[in-house]
Write a structure and sequence with these properties.
With 381 residues, the protein is an alpha/beta fold. 43% of the residues lie in helices and 15% in strands. The chain folds into 2 domains: 127 residues, Aspartate Aminotransferase, domain 1 (Alpha-Beta Complex), CATH 3.90.1150.10; 240 residues, Type I PLP-dependent aspartate aminotransferase-like (Major domain) (Aspartate Aminotransferase, domain 2), CATH 3.40.640.10. It is built from 14 helices and 12 strands. It is globular and about 60 Å long. It starts with 18 loop residues before the first strand and ends with a helix. The structure holds pyridoxal-5'-phosphate (PLP).
Length: 381
């Protein structure tokens, strides 16, 4: 039986005593994975030329094969990128749009991806259209229906978050993808929070592109993410940075975008081993159950509500703060005060109300959320 919570917290380098319930923002890399990353760095600095010429190309493809197997995918369809933002940029900036074309996003689209869509749309005189997400307690059918209703004859692309950042909702991807494909609209899934939170079978999901972070819920070192492209979507797909591989095919273009430190990407093998050692699917189910239990406990303590209602959660869940409506500067100031007071928990605004986003990773246990709630209540007072 695997232990979780404080019994294994020392597997991470997290500051002892600091109340961290925010794995979702930047992940946290276990010592074992940092050691694997360091091993790659040592090899890189030992003989830089031999490392980049002879070792990196095969090592990257070995790492892609290990990751592809976790995603039930073919490694030939899987390229590494540094983060989800870069992966989404690659797809969006590879596509051509005509004036008055529409790019569909969710109302809760991640801010950096929203900006990328705005940038691409503005360069082609296209338009960004948002499908509204009711919050709190949206049901999956309403989300899928809202996306379907927002598709028009001018929709050229849908960019859909797998798990929304500001509201921790798992979106009904199969229904959304089916609705988009029925209207001939390709789908880019922003799965920044997917890998390690939910079980993934990328070919079965049948999106056109899926971008995923490994440095969040898979515990890889920071700067480890991937872009999966369905085989028929790889032509004319280019990284955001063009380099030596230009015109030589999907993998050649993405595997080299200039000199960089590939140790984070190569840490994925150790991260996958770590995830499996902690239980793999058992860990994911345990984290989801803890997130839901923690959110219910904190909402009861605050006398407020959870964001997901009866919907299943992944490893994150939302709780409304017991505070009057506030604006973004006030929310950010509160976030800083909470960090100073000893807890890392992100805040998001919905209709002027601040909500806490709770993350549950293997090192968390219910007591973390009780301590976090104490700090929040004391800070609000
Ligand atoms: C939905 C979503 N997309 C994209 C990102 C960006 O991830 P990264 O900073 O690793 O590029 C995030 C980060 O939290 C996210 O939540």
């Amino acid at each position: 039986m695997t232990s979780y919570g404080s019994a294994i917290r020392d597997e991470w380098a997290l500051a002892p005593g600091y109340v961290t319930v925010n794995h979702g923002s930047f992940g946290a890399t276990p010592r074992a994975v940092l050691a694997a990353q360091q091993m790659w760095r040592d090899r890189m600095e030992d003989q830089p030329s031999r490392f980049f010429r002879s070792i990196v190309p095969a090592a990257l493809r070995d790492a892609a094969a290990a990751l592809a197997s976790f995603l039930n995918a073919d490694s030939a369809d899987l390229a590494f990128v540094t983060n989800a933002t870069q992966g989404c940029n690659a797809v969006l900036r590879s596509l051509a749009f005509a004036p008055s074309d529409e790019i569909l996003v969710l109302g809760h689209v991640y801010g950096a991806v929203r900006n990328t869509v705005r940038y691409v749309a503005s360069r082609h005189a296209a338009t960004m259209v948002e499908a509204p997400i009711p919050f709190p307690r949206p049901d999956a059918d309403t989300i899928a229906a809202n996306v379907a209703a927002a598709i028009t004859p001018r929709t050229r692309l849908a960019v859909i978050d797998h798990i929304t950042s500001s509201s921790a909702l798992i979106t009904p991807l199969p229904a959304i993808i089916a609705a988009c494909h029925a209207k001939g609209v390709p789908v880019l899934v922003d799965g920044a929070h997917g890998p390690g939170q939910v079980t993934l079978d990328l070919p079965a999901l049948n999106a056109d592109w899926y971008v995923g972070n490994c440095h969040k819920w898979l515990n890889a070192a920071k700067g480890c993410a991937f872009l999966w492209a369905r085989h028929d979507r790889q032509t004319d797909l280019h990284p955001a940075v063009i380099s030596h591989g230009y015109g030589k095919g999907f993998l050649a273009e993405f595997d080299w975008t200039g000199t960089w430190d590939p140790s984070a990407l190569l840490s994925i093998t150790a991260a996958l081993e770590f995830h499996a050692r902690l239980g793999g699917p058992t860990l994911r189910a345990r984290n989801a159950a803890l997130a839901a239990e923690a959110a219910a406990m904190v909402a009861a303590r605050f006398g407020t509500e959870t964001g997901h209602g009866n919907q299943p959660t992944g490893s994150m869940a939302m709780v409304r703060l017991p505070a009057p409506a506030m604006d973004a500067p006030a929310m950010l100031a509160l976030r800083d005060r909470l960090l100073d007071a000893g807890t890392d928990v992100p805040l998001h605004l919905h209709a002027g109300q601040a909500w806490l986003r709770l993350s549950a990773q293997a090192y968390n246990e219910l007591d973390d959320y009780a301590r976090m709630a104490d700090i929040v209540l004391a800070t609000l007072r």
